[in-house]
Predict the 3D structure of the following.
Amino acid sequence: MTPDRASYKKSSFGPAFLFLEKRRREALAAYYAFCRLMDDLADEPGVKDPEKELSFWQEEMTRAFAGRAQTDPGKELFEMAQTFGLEPDRFLLLIEGMRADVQGRTYATRQELEWYLWRVAGIVGLATLDILGVKGPQAQALARQLGFAVQLTNIVRDVQEDARLGRVYLPQDLLAEHGLTREDILQNTHPEKLPAVLAPLAQTARDFYAQAAQTMRAFPACNMLPCRVMGCLYRANLAKIEKMGFVFARPVKLTKSEKLLHCIYALFQTVFTR
């Protein structure tokens, strides 16, 4: 399998790409395609040996940063990384997070869950900011805030879909507070208790969205437009889930008109809010 650079067009990230100049859009498309491929290797049932495939890409990206890439995608990703100053961890930590998915890693506490959030979302946010030309300690903070908010939204939204894959990201101590276990989530027993587990994670996500919005004020508005678009879309998706009382049979998503409305709102924020 190789990265598909057009994959972002079908994703929730798609609208954020519309506001980028060509070279940054192409670089972000290449990085997102790599992320999408790693996710597919971990999730798709047709992959015979996910760990072997992930190990190949781990080795390939290590070779790439040593100037010895063996594949065209590896060479192209390294060239992009050099152009925009991406460090190897933008690729290697993501693979580590995907390997945790394949191995069925569980998280005892919310603090343990943050280990995973950084690898599958925070580091992606940091790479995105690299490509946008935003670097430094504040960029690190923004990557954590927005990345964690988005991934927590995904965890809340996809809880039942993840369970069908045999995965439970909900911290075990939070489940225990409400009389639930990992097996309860996998078997969908006591579904009436699930909203009480998801609500505090949603609140944490909202807190991270608020922190990210504040941190964005430290950067040039034009650089932040893709981040604002992404934040607005995912925050709106979370609000839609909350409005349903966290009761849904399949992942809740925004309609095209809802996405358009929130893109316009993000543009308004960028132009008129400092």
